[in-house]
Design goal:
rod-shaped, mainly alpha, single chain
Length: 225
Amino acid sequence: MEQTPVTLDQKLDRLAEQVQYLSDQAQCSARRQEARAELLDDATPIINDVFRITTEQLEEVQDYVDLSDLLRLLKRLMRNTRNLDAMLDQLESLSDLGQTVGPLVGDAFDRTTDLLEAAENKGYFTFAKGGVKVMDNVVTSFGEEDLGHLGDNIVLILSVIKDMTQPQILSLVRAIISEGEVEIAQPVNTSLPALLKQMRDPDVRRGFGLTMRVLGIIGAQVPGK
């Protein structure tokens, strides 16, 4: 049967559409090829530079690195992929922890700075420097033999210090020092009548008696000769 004109026109239209589609695809393919060619032209110098730099760097370490070492390292990396992934997770956790703790650390640092500044204003650092100087003097003044004697008698020394730190002893020493400074600044009458007058003072007689008692204790501790 002969085909009608309407059917032929439809076929011609479809054929024209297909030809147009093929033409568009050919143009798109040409543009992609042109873009790839331009990209290759642009990337070629960069690739050459990277290859040259890589070659230079490898030449510097070629005496220390072997291909078998690289392969063994690559195998180890592949075998420990899970461990590396877990390590990265831990690093991310530490990063999150750092972001959380960061403000707290900043506040603690500010407080520490304020405390150090207050300590410096009060003279703690100056006292520490003076203490270091005192320790230097002590270390340079004592020899090995002196340190041996100090170690043998440290218990006795600490006992003496403990006794001297009793409240009544400290009060007595403080009173002697404070009142003694006043008395020493005044003129002293050493005539016999003045001395006899002082002996009539009960406090003077009590002090003289205590002094004689202390002298007796000292005499008992010292050998006869």
